[in-house]
Amino acid sequence: MIPDDTGAGVLWSNDPGEVRELSALGALAWEGREGRPEGPRYEWVEFNLLCNAAPTPFILDGEGFSCVDSFYEPLKFPEGTPERGECAVAPALEARRFARRHRDATFVYRGKHISVHSLEHEGLLAAAITAKVAQNTDVQIALRETGTARLTFPLTFSRHPGALARVTPVVLMIERWKRFHDPMRGPESTG
Questions:
Q1: Is residue 129 part of a domain?
Q2: Which of 87, 132, 143, 160 could bond 58 through an S-S bridge, CB–CB 3.0 to 4.6 Å?
Q3: How many distinct structural domains can be found in the chain?
């Protein structure tokens, strides 16, 4: 459980140095390759499961996705097309390659036109991340293990965070708070 205090663990930490970057670059770099180094840093386990690319299948609105990235990338294809369906079940790196050249200002989801980077877009991404957490016990365990650390998303390719980089840490911290904070127990309830 998260201690019942001033709200640490939602959007901040009592310890300013307690920050965890949501990056699984080691696992991504070695995925499917021989000679992978040993250790959890290079595998889809524990903290790495919080990454949007982690193979953590979930269902949202009756459709299956292999990971959050495999939800995000197919939105670039027209709704109902085979490309969108193939991208949804592809591993993260394959989904990214598949959708790489597709960029539009809007997309269609369940018949509704949504502007990229809009509140509706970010709300949809939040729903996908929430579904991932709800449907994967190992993700819930990894999230609980972050304690009250502030979660951040590393800006590796741009100085300006994209929709997933903005939404992911906040949604994960809110999910952590909802699942593991118990206001009926005192600060000692950290297990």
A1: yes
A2: 132
A3: 1
Domain residues for the domain of 35 are 25-146
Residue 66 placed within a domain: yes
Side chain identity, residue 102: H
List pLDDT tens digits, range 123-168: 999 999 999 999 999 999 999 999 888 888 776 666 777 888 889 9
In this predicted structure, what is the pLDDT of residue 38?
Answer: 76
Show Cβ contacts of residue 13 under 8 Å, excluding neighbours closer than 6 positions. Answer: 19, 148, 149, 150
Cβ contact 23:170 at 8 Å: no
Angle between helices 163-180 and 119-135 (to 10 degrees): 50
Q: Which two tokens stand for residue 150?
A: 């502030």
Residue with tokens 């027209």: 78
SS3 35: coil
Does residue 187 have a pLDDT over 60? no
Shortest CA distance to 72 belongs to which of 177, 170, 166, 173? 166
